[in-house]
Amino acid sequence: MPQKLTETMTAVHPLRRRMIDDMNLRNLSLATQRSYLHAVSKFSRYFGCSPDKLGLEDVRAFQVYLVSQNISWPAL
């Protein structure tokens, strides 16, 4: 049985909980789940707000920023 990411903290934001549940449903590897959570965290920190307040144009702006920082294509 594949490993699943679980949050042991009692106060997990509902959006994070949903993302973890969705990734578990899709049987994503533990490493992929951690990578995705880290990416969303970086995205959120860049704009200084919760990802549920951000939209597609914000995703594009963040990608433009990452490219300007010479991030590798696989990391993008």
What do you see in this structure?
The model has no long low-confidence stretch (mean pLDDT 89). The chain is 57% helix and 0% strand. It is globular, with a radius of gyration of 14 Å. It contains three helices and no strands. The chain has helices at 14-25, 30-47, 56-68. It starts with 13 loop residues before the first helix and ends in an 8-residue tail after the last helix. The longest helix has 18 residues, at 30-47. By secondary structure, the chain is mainly α.
Overall 3D form: globular
Q: Give me the strand/helix succession.
A: HHH
Largest sheet: none
Strand content: under 5%
List the total number of helices: 3
Q: How many discrete domains?
A: 1
User: Can you give the mean pLDDT?
Assistant: 89
Tell me the total number of β-strands: 0
Q: What is the rounded distance between the termini?
A: 30 Å
- Which structural class do you get from the secondary structure elements? mainly alpha
Radius of gyration: 14 Å
Unreliable segments of 5+ consecutive residues: none
Helix content: 55-70%
